[in-house]
Amino acid sequence: MNMKSIRCFLLAFLLVPVCIRAAELPRNPETLRILAVGNSFSNDATTWLPDLLEGAGIHNVILARLYIGGCSLERHCREYEKMDRNYKYYKSTENSWVTVSEKATILDGIGDEPWDIITIQQSSPLSGVPESFDPWTERLIGIIRKHCSNPDVVIVWHQTWAYARSSTHRAFPTYGNNQIIMYGKINECTDELCRRFDFATVIPSGTAVQNARWSHIIFDGKDLTRDGYHLNTGYTRYLAACVWFESLIRPALGKSVVGNPFRMQETDKEIDARTARRFQRIAARTVKSNRWK
Description:
The protein is α/β, with parallel strands linked by helices and 293 residues long. The chain contains 10 helices and 7 strands. A 7-stranded mixed sheet has the order 4-3-2-1-5-6-7. β3 and β4 (98-104) form a beta hairpin. The protein is globular and about 45 Å long.
């Protein structure tokens, strides 16, 4: 091979987008600390997570969720610039959500603990719009790294879900009012983000919800949502929490969500054991086949 051919080969190689996985989730920490910086979709996805931890007999995980409804990556960065108290901040230290503040700043959450994992996500209307991620993804990651007291904190991307086929959300026309197109666009944006940023992993909630839809596990007329876009407050929130458990808790602490006895007992959301197992298995299979690991 002559020098010209070698140069062409190297140039071609460099032009191939590569997702380098330098960051890794913590393994067997004494205490695992996880913060979700997001919006109502992160709120939906983590609602039942403390209960799954309790069901697994895990008591060394601190969870927190810092959110503003509908908050985009850009708005998180704007909130940092203004330091307004527009966030709600919830925390679980004993496997139960407690309200810390309904008027928090972004730094009230980021600076509260030496977080091991901080998750971020885009707002649902923009989740499949490529131009909405720049420069805000990089800026938000920079804010987190600047203000988190743990220098080894890893950033995780939360992949959200497409709207119900019958959704009347004002942003749905952006995707031709087509669930499959929206889901595909979300995946394309996730692919691009993984090529550019050092995420420890991606939590594939959107793929799990889509897998459940395609499996016809439950037909409720709203494609597993309560309003065309937010998750059903019972079983689909349960599915998403199983995905978070399998994505973050299993690698860090070695316990799978499969076989977890929690199924929202003693609430009006209780599901039967068979349905719980099916959701757990959908979550586990989705995470196992996660193309963004």
